[in-house]
Amino acid sequence: MSSSTNSHSGDEKACTIAPGQVLEASQATTEQLLRHAVELARQGVRKRAGGPFGAVIVRKLPASEHSGKQFVEILASGHNCVLKTQDPTAHAEMVVLREAAQRLKRRNLSDCELYTSCFPCAMCYGAIWWAKIPRFWYASRSEDAAGAGFDDARIYECLRGTGHADLRGEHVTIAEHHEPFEEYLDALKHGLSELY
Amino acid sequence: MSSSTNSHSGDEKACTIAPGQVLEASQATTEQLLRHAVELARQGVRKRAGGPFGAVIVRKLPASEHSGKQFVEILASGHNCVLKTQDPTAHAEMVVLREAAQRLKRRNLSDCELYTSCFPCAMCYGAIWWAKIPRFWYASRSEDAAGAGFDDARIYECLRGTGHADLRGEHVTIAEHHEPFEEYLDALKHGLSELY
Known about the structure:
Chain A is of the alpha+beta class. In chain A, 37% of the residues lie in helices and 18% in strands. The first copy, chain A, has helices at residues 27-46, 82-85, 92-104, 122-130, 142-147, 152-160, 179-189, and strands at 22-24, 54-60, 71-79, 112-118, 135-140, 168-171.
């Protein structure tokens, strides 16, 4: 399912970004990582893997005691793979988030940062949130994506309660609907520290 | 990664809902599927697999020519597995969406419907959207989840532009940011029908 890729097409800029690599954090590094995300997006289109979106996720390493310099380690990089995998959730951000969590063997990625070729859709924004990533960088804005026909804006409109709600949710109350929450709260009382 | 489960704990109601099963569509079936989603949510808590959320996804079968009756086939069912898998994206809805797409070998699930124990978070709402599912049913409301400490509401606030934006996105313009979109639009002009 994951789609880490570090292969290079002939005409692209020299790029050595690969999982495991350590880079010094700087404005130049931020731009380098965003350029790499954009290059991955291009590669995804060329491979017909999915939409024109790429992402890179890094882990912030503890600052060097001697120099005070900050370094980041590349955890995962990839592009949209919806077409290649026929998984409608395989957006670039999802692909790298899942791969990074697998690599670190933990769901909490609060020491990580994400670089994406374009502002994330609502699904990916939510996923970044749940992974507890505090900050992400993006190169293209939602409006740029909309200009290429990607209708993230309509999801945002639905979530904002503006415009027509294309995706309808029907509320049906059943007697036992609250039981899972009660069971969860009870587990919390009995020593469970966190469960989601 | 998927977590289809049809096992039963001792005290639950008799339940025969399993992938592959065909049910006649009716109000009673809707409630039955929601009760099953709720039961899966309880099982998820008991197994310490993840948060108290469950979901079922069905495929609508063509209406019978003779009787005009509508039937649905169970494609996948599961619960939140974030803790079990250490995948921060493994919410119940994501788990069943991914499993259903894998089962059908296609990303377009527009002939499917989803039943979830609770109104989906922004990530899952977006995923349901991208899978082109036209309608979903839910048992508990976001407010019910919030009462148990699940802070989906804060994501929605960020997406709505209200309240404090806990998750910050930083926009950095790099010269080539629009190239993937151009490449995509060019591919569309040269015969590619759809790419995401």
